[in-house]
Amino acid sequence: MINDYSQRLVVQEVAPRDGLQIEPIWVATADKIALIDQLSLAGFSRIEAGSFVSPKAIPALRDGEQVFHGIARQPGVTYVALIPNLKGAQRALVAKADELNLVLSASQSHNRANMRMTREQSLAGFTEVLELARGTSVSLNGTIATTFGCPFEGAIDERVVMDLVDAYQRLGMQGVTLADTTGMANPRQVYALVRRVLEQLPAEALTLHFHNTRGLGLSNVLAAYEAGARRFDASLGGLGGCPFAPGASGNICTEDLVNLCEEMGIPTGIDLPRLLDLSRTLPALLGHEMPGQVAKAGRNADLHPLPPGLG
Amino acid sequence: MINDYSQRLVVQEVAPRDGLQIEPIWVATADKIALIDQLSLAGFSRIEAGSFVSPKAIPALRDGEQVFHGIARQPGVTYVALIPNLKGAQRALVAKADELNLVLSASQSHNRANMRMTREQSLAGFTEVLELARGTSVSLNGTIATTFGCPFEGAIDERVVMDLVDAYQRLGMQGVTLADTTGMANPRQVYALVRRVLEQLPAEALTLHFHNTRGLGLSNVLAAYEAGARRFDASLGGLGGCPFAPGASGNICTEDLVNLCEEMGIPTGIDLPRLLDLSRTLPALLGHEMPGQVAKAGRNADLHPLPPGLG
């Protein structure tokens, strides 16, 4: 444990993209816009608002243009779009995304399964995207999926991750995300890797993306925070499952993370009661319960009445 | 983060008592015995196997005598019984429990709600139990419920907890459990309190009992371990809910904790694959899904086949 919890923890909300993309039902464009607009008012500085991927690959997010066109952008909020390739980048620039998020996997086999190309081919494609973005105001973030383990290969050598961080820096990416794509990270591993990466990147350029697949998401956030990381992805309600494990959790839950921060005194700038109200609308919107815990249990401050006869 | 994770973490399995007591369906005595016997073979050194409470108060556990009589006791395993009062202690001694666990709450209002008496009355009752146990081989453990927060009162002053630790020591209890009864603890608070308590108690006399109500159970375990605590309660499958928050989790999940320890290199002595097999029998036994995550997601080592065409 460290002694100083006064440094702000920045939460990037990913429910509108990473959360919704796995949902089997269609969420109307107007509902997506309303969700993002509510998130924009809850204090987030970064929202991953959609993706520009083939509508055949991710039909749930095929309305990326309409969503980016329809949202009420708030000053100080960066609206991020996930893009897989040059075509997606062109669409995202037209749609005025503030930041493009590109993804490859540290694991060669996961990259082939997910992207149908090698890591080297992914990096070559990113070069074209960076050339397209040069001279515009858009910033670029490179995600390294399966940083902490691969569901096909198992452990990932830290040197592979460090080489990809190097490659992203050489390409000119402004930010790097280390993603625990299927929830295989543990706090000891996270602490060691984040310390190492922060020798090379400033904290404001590094995002950690944890999944709660094996119940360790928030423990990993704390380990990364202790190692100096300050920026974390999280998903409202814990929206977004794990394609490799039906019934298992995916993304860490935003309001559970913000609640943890509040209880520990870590500033986030996010309005937790407002966030809880919003999270509690998700089961009706999506037709199922969410994995998030604080929306069910309430905050510590939500006291219960004494049982009858004792009040 | 600390550097040394070589110290064994002792898990006390509580599913047969704390897990089952909240279940609405009746679990046959033979099934309870079979569960405990399987747990005895999985490497646990401590199992809370039942309670000797009024059958009207906890009908699910009204067969405590038959359970303790029927189990195949393994050498090196301590079988613990929860007891509320002298009458329960007399029953537990007849049933040959190895250890009696007594509970009061740090919060006066929670003690009144839970036990229908004041903390002072609870302590007076414990004196009678300790007198009964004197000269026998049975050991005594005192639990302090709501140590980290009370659902009626909110925050609990650390001095109240320290006074109760003192009172337990003066009574002659061999062990003390600090319980986060409704999942209100956070890692910063846990670290500070455990450090303080371990100035007064040896680590082998201290157990931490965390709930995962707000998703912080395993983070709290790690904070307590870093502060020097070595013994933790956990429940197979995460069995046992939270009476104050329908749908919320209760006890931390044993196999999720053991998985965390394995991934971080912390020895537990527990056979995780065997534990997972056992946990996966619970939904059929109890008629609902369990909150535990690793039983659904598998271990990191359970790799997935590559998608067709990439193998």
From TrEMBL, chains A, B:
It comes from Pseudomonas baltica. This is Hydroxymethylglutaryl-CoA lyase. Belongs to the HMG-CoA lyase family. Keywords: Lyase, Metal-binding. GO terms for biological process: ketone body biosynthetic process; L-leucine catabolic process. Pfam families: HMGL-like. Residues 9-276 form the Pyruvate carboxyltransferase domain. CDD domains: DRE_TIM_HMGL. One of its GO terms (molecular function) is hydroxymethylglutaryl-CoA lyase activity.
